[in-house]
Amino acid sequence: MTPRRRTPTAYPVRRVDAGAGAPSPDGTAPWPLDVPAVRQLLREGLDLGALMVLVGENGSGKSTLVEGIAMAYGLSCEGGSTFGQHSSRASESPLGQWLRLTRNPGSSRWGFFLRAETMHGYYTYAESLGPTPRPEPVYHELSHGESFLAVLQNRFDGPGLYVLDEPESALSFSGCLALVAVLLDLARSGTAQALVATHSPVVAALPGARILEVGPWGLRESAWEELEVVGHWRQFLDAPQRYLRHLT
Questions:
Q1: Distance CA 148, CA 166 (A)
Q2: CB 168 within 8 A of CB 198
Q3: Cα–Cα distance measured from residue 93 to residue 72, given in angstroms and rounded to the nearest whole number
Q4: Rounded distance, CA 185 to CA 156, Å?
Q5: For the domain bounded by 13-244, which CATH number is listed?
Q6: Starting at the edge strand that comes first in sequence, how are the strands of the sheet with 46-47 ordered?
Q7: How does pLDDT run across 97-142, given as a tens digit for each residue?
């Protein structure tokens, strides 16, 4: 008799907390404990919903946070799916080892980490695996943006945790809208969730997402229209010379 396949009943991760081996977030310590957002995560923990977006300046810690959560879930810090072994040069923080994830019972354990800065290496790794039961395009033969969209079409289609670090870096305006559509479809399933770090006001506008603004203050919940990046883009598009005059 063929065993019945277990159907996931909820999205995978309910909460992130400091694990038993995590250092104290209140002491003085080197990176990443010197990042306010990391200290706050270890001190207070974080509830994850179906959709969460982290927005902040370069160096604010948002990529460190999503990397740590992805690694705690069992994903390679350089991107790819659950149990992937893609690795080139270790540069990740130890945050993933310090975190404990509270999972929803009966949820999928599958996941995918799309990390913009390492996707070229992931494509090479994927090709090295040879033929797979599910044929995929040769990503290296596509343009940068087309390859990202192909990953969305081929990998973002079922229960699991989807972690994305600055996915907009390869995408046009319409490509960002396509990404938002994919993430919305996943969230509506009730068995998939997405955690996104972004600089894009388009991606940050993901309907129904909880938005956290990351900065020197740590993590703070924000409405889309109150984000600094949204205000800057509005002002720039209204009068570019107000910004450009300071550069020349």
A1: 11
A2: yes
A3: 12
A4: 10
A5: 3.40.50
A6: 46-47, 13-18, 99-103
A7: 999 999 999 999 999 999 888 787 777 777 776 666 667 778 788 8
